[in-house]
Amino acid sequence: MNQSIKPGDNPDLTEERLSGTFDTNSMAAVIYGSDKLAQRRREISEAVSRIPELQDSKPCPFMTREEKILEGSRKSAILNRLLPGLIDLDSFEETVFIHQEVIGIEGHPLALHESLFIPPIATQGTDEQQKKWLGRAQRREIIGCYAQTELGHGSNLRALETTATFDISSQEFILNSPTITSLKWWPGALGKSANWSIVIANLIVHDKNHGPHPFMVQLRDEKSHEPLPGITVGDIGPKMAFNGADNGFLGFENYRIPRENMLMRHSKVTPDGGYIRPPHAKIGYSGMVRVRSRMAAEQGLFLAHALTIAVRYSAIRRQGYLEDRSREVKVLDYQTQQHRLFPSIARAYAFIFCGFETIRLYDQLLIDVQNGNTSGMADLHALTSGLKSVVTHQTGEGIEQARMACGGHGYSMASYISEIYGVAIGGCTYEGENMVMLLQLARYLVKSIEMIQNGKSKNLGPMVAYLAANESEIDLNLGPNEYLKVFQYAARSQAWRATEKFQKLRNSGMSKEQAWNQASVELTRASRLHTRLYIMSTFINHVGSVVDQKIKKVLIDLLNVHITYEVMDIGIYVQGLLSSDQMDLIRNQLYVSLETIRPNAVSLVDSFQISDMQLRSVLGRRDGNVYENLFKWAKSCPLNDKDVLESVTKYLKPMMDKSKL
Ligand SMILES: CCCCCCCC/C=C\CCCCC/C=C/C(=O)SCCNC(=O)CCNC(=O)[C@H](O)C(C)(C)COP(=O)(O)OP(=O)(O)OC[C@H]1O[C@@H](n2cnc3c(N)ncnc32)[C@H](O)[C@@H]1OP(=O)(O)O
Ligand SMILES: Cc1cc2nc3c(=O)[nH]c(=O)nc-3n(C[C@H](O)[C@H](O)[C@H](O)COP(=O)(O)OP(=O)(O)OC[C@H]3O[C@@H](n4cnc5c(N)ncnc54)[C@H](O)[C@@H]3O)c2cc1C
Fold first, then answer.
1. For the chain, what percent of residues have pLDDT higher than 90?
2. Domain of 348: which CATH number?
3. Catalytic residues
4. Predicted TM-score (pTM) of this structure
C-alpha cells in the first residue's frame, strides 16, 4: 500500500498511488537500510513539522543571499537547542537529515562543521587533541570549516603554497600565504561563520618541506568574532547555487599557532624538530575519502528529490491525447516521458544502495587504519574516486532531464529543480574534479592490468578480477548476470585498450607523463565503465538480498530498467560481443520494462519519503494540488507587493510619455 494517500489529494495522484503494488514504508526500509532508520526519518519530519519556529520564513527563491545566510543561522541556532529532544546526537545520518529537512539544500553555517571539520579531529587528532577540541566542536561552542583549496591550486595538492614553518625556539608553527595564489579559496562557512578551521598547509621543519598536513587554526576571536591579527578572511561572493553557504577566502601573515595544533595522530613533529612519518603517505587525505565515500548516497538523494518532483508532476499534468480524445492524457503515459524519467529512478536507487555500501567500506577501513592496517586505502581511494565522478555526472544529467520533463513549470523556481541541479553538480567539482578523480582510478586499473601481464592475476582484488577473464560469447537468455557479463566485457576491453595505448606511447619513447596525457580520454572512459559495472553489480546483489517478495518483485522490474538502459547506453563498447539482433532484443526489453514499472512510478518516488518541507517544490507537492499553489506562490512573490514598481515610474513611464509627444 502507498502510505502517502490522504483525503483532499489530487485524484490523479491518488489513482497512481492506488495502482502501486507494494508498501512504500517497506520500500523505504530497503532504501535506507533498515525499518528503524526509515521510520526515524518519518518521525523527525513529523516532529519538525510541528515546530513553528523551524518553518521557512518565506520560500527560499524569494530570499536574498543575506536572508538565506541569516535564515540558515537562525535555524541552526534553534536546532542546536532542540536537537537533544529530536534526534540521536551520536547519529551522523540523523544530524545531516534534520538539517536537510529544516534548512534545505542551499547550505548553512554548519554544513562543513559536521562533515569536514569534526571528522579530521576525530580521526587524525591525538587523544589529547580530541579531548581539547572534539567536545567543544560537538557542543558547537566553536564553528569549523576545512581550508585546503587555494586560489591557484585545488586539484593538485602537491602545489599548495600555504606554509606552516616550525619555529623550535617558540615551539610554534608560523603560517604564511606567500602569494595571491596561495590564498585559501572556497572553503564552506569560512567566509563569515566559522571561527576555527582545519587548515592544510605544507609542513616545513628545518627548511625541509614534508608536504601538506592538517592544522587546527583559530581564525576569529571567540568573543567578538573579529578576525585575529595576521588573518585576512571574507566571503568569495555569490555562486551558481548553494548561496546559503558562505564559502570564503583566507590569508595568513606570520600567524603563529602552538606546536600542539598540528593534528598528530599519524604524522608528528617532536619538540626538537624531529619529523615522524605517517604509516601511509596519503593518510592525511582520508578526510576527503570519507566525504567521497558518502557522495553516492547523497547524490542519489539529490536525484531522488528531482524525480519525486518530476514524476508526481507528470502524473497530474495532462497534455495531448492518446486513444481517448475526450480527456487529455497524463504526460507520464508517454513513452518518451518514461524513457526520460524511469532509468533515472533506477539510477537513484542504484546510487543509494551502492552509497550505503561505500559508507560501510569506509567505516571498516577507518577501524583498520586505527589498528595500523592501511592496506585497504588504495582500493577504497580508487573506488570512491570513480564513484563520486560517475554518480555526480549522471545525477546532474538526470536532474536536468527531470527539469525538462516538467516543461515550462520546470524552469520556474517554483519547481526548485534548478537549485537542486546547481547544488548537486557542485559535486562534479568539489572533493576532486571529476576528470582528475577518474584518472586516479585509471592508475589503479592500469596497475591491475600490468599485474595480469606479469602473470600475477591471482593477486588481483575482487573488484578487478574480471579484467583477467576472457568472455567472447553471451547467451542472450538474458538475466541480470548475463547483462553483468556484457558490462564486464565492455569495461574490460576498454581498460585494456586504454592501457595498451598508454604502453604503446611509452614504448615509442614518450615520457610517462606525456603518454598518460595522450591516453587520458581513453583512460577516463575505462574508469567510467569500471565504475558503472560496480554500480550495476551492487544493485544486482542488493536486490538479491531483499526478503519481502512484493518489494523484491518491483526492484527486479526496476533492475530490468537499469540493466537494459545501461547496456543500450554503452552500445558502442559491446559491438564486438553482441549482434544487432541481440541489441534489438535488449532495446525491446527496455521498452517492456518501462511499461512494467509504470504503475509503480509514483510509489517508487514516494518511497524516498521526502517531505514537502524538505522538497520545497510547488510542483512536487505530496498532495498534487499544483495549479492553485502555483498561483498562490506567484502572488506571494515580492515583485507583486506593489502593482506599480519604481522601474515603471522612474524609467518606463517617462520613456513612454516622452515617446507620445
Ligand atoms: C538531499 C541529499 C542530502 C545530502 C546531504 C549533504 C548535502 C551536502 C551538499 C553540499 C555540501 C557541499 C560541501 C562541499 C565540501 C567540499 C569540500 C572540498 O572540496 S575539500 C577539497 C577537496 N579537494 C580535493 O579533492 C583535491 C583533489 N586532489 C587530490 O585528492 C590529490 O591531489 C590527488 C588527485 C589524489 C593526487 O594526489 P598526489 O599528487 O598527492 O598523488 P599522486 O602522485 O597522484 O598519487 C600518488 C599515489 O597516491 C595514491 N593516492 C592519492 N590519494 C590517495 C588517497 N586518498 N588514499 C590512498 N591513496 C591515494 C595515488 O592513487 C597514487 O597511487 P599509485 O598509483 O602511485 O599507486
Ligand atoms: C561548492 C563547492 C564547495 C567547495 N568547498 C570546499 C571546501 O569546503 N574546502 C576546500 O578546501 N575546497 C572546497 N572547494 C574547492 C574544490 O575542492 C576544488 O574546486 C576542486 O578540488 C577542484 O579544483 P580546482 O578548482 O583547482 O579545479 P582545476 O584543477 O583548476 O580544474 C580545472 C580543469 O582542469 C582540469 N585538470 C586539472 N588537473 C588535471 C589533471 N591532472 N589532468 C587532467 N585534467 C586536469 C580539470 O579536469 C578541470 O577541467 C569547493 C568547491 C565547490 C565548487
1. 94
2. 1.20.140.10
3. 431
4. 0.97
